[in-house]
Amino acid sequence: MKHRPNFRRRRSSTRSVLRLLDLEHSKTAVLDSLTSQDAQRGYRHAIDEFVDWYCSEPRLAFN
What we know:
Layout: H1 20-32, H2 37-55
Helix pairs in contact: 1-2
């Protein structure tokens, strides 16, 4: 019985890497969905803190 060679197939999926422009767009979309000024201020602060922390050291891509 002959065995077929076991070829590994490459996935054709596209990698998604968020860049700062993408993060700003996402941040704006989240903040625009909030009606309360206090909620917007809190979310803006939390998002900015997270982005600062995440960008402070080399890490794997965020997806």
